[in-house]
Amino acid sequence: MSQHQSEIKRVTTHQLQAMKNRGEKISMLTAYDYSMARILGMAGIDVILVGDSASNVMAGNETTLPITLDQMIYHATSVVKAITRPFVVVDIPFGSYQGNSSEALRSAIRIMKESGAHGVKVEGGEEIRESVVRILSAGVPVMGHLGLTPQSIFKFGTYAVRAKEQEEADKLIRDAKILEDCGCFAIVLEKIPAELAKKVAEEVRIPIIGIGAGPHVDGQVLVIHDMLGITQEFQPRFLRTYADLDAIMTKAFTQYIEDVKSSDFPNEKESY
Ligand code: KIV
């Protein structure tokens, strides 16, 4: 092992818990390929989520439902190869854990064994308790996901803010406590009122990572294509866009096309 490698300490679930305990916010972004994950790792991200949002931003599907376990493993394998420090968590895709807990365990083990990732994420609370317990029993760290859970989009019928009504808010708090009691190491809360997210972050000990859940949680996550301004059609209120890569890339591509057409590229220095 080189000195450089031995100096880099991988982020662990214990470190994420310690970050919550001392009030240090956790940074998390999605990545699905080697090149993006390498840059993210160098920038110092704490957690990389190989999200099933790959179904939308990589494969062009309307929802996260079509992506398969094999495809998620392919993306995760590419990400893991690129990083040394971040904790890598992978979404178990729709249809690979809801059926029964044995299937859930099989899917989690395939992800861990074949990709080398460090944990898995599942959507839901009480309904998937058995699957969560079974995966955890094999020593696989599990991250929960409550609120707007995109794998249930056809049940919700809309991408609107969840848990605005008391009944749904109460269930969300109950589910968060169930996931904590099962032994999950963290929970993502998506698109819920900031005050509810604050209450959850105060009432459970494990880290709460928000996306559209306001500032009073233990960390934040965004889909990398959204925050880089690559996806143009998705502009929810919770999204902060940190770059306009669509414009930068379009400019580069049009310049390249012009240079090829005009025979400006390649020039003498670019030739052998
Ligand atoms: O798949 C994904 O990118 C996610 C985030 C939205 C949290 O689950």
Descriptive account of the structure:
With 272 residues, the protein is α/β, with parallel strands linked by helices. It has two domains: 3-241, Alpha-Beta Barrel (TIM Barrel); 244-272, no CATH class. It has twelve helices and eight strands. An eight-stranded parallel barrel has the order 1-2-3-4-5-6-7-8, surrounded by seven helices. β1, α3 (34-43) and β2 form a beta-alpha-beta unit. α6 packs across α7 (129-137). The longest helix is centred in the middle third of the chain and has 17 residues, at 166-182. It is globular. The structure holds 3-methyl-2-oxobutanoic acid. 3-methyl-2-oxobutanoic acid (KIV) binds at residues 30, 49, 51-53, 91, 145, 188, 190, 211, 221, 223.
Task: Summarize this entry quickly.
43% of the residues lie in helices and 13% in strands. The chain is an alpha/beta fold and 272 residues long.
Q: Could you list some keywords that capture this structure?
A:
272 residues; 8-stranded parallel barrel; binds 3-methyl-2-oxobutanoic acid; 8 strands; alpha/beta; TIM Barrel
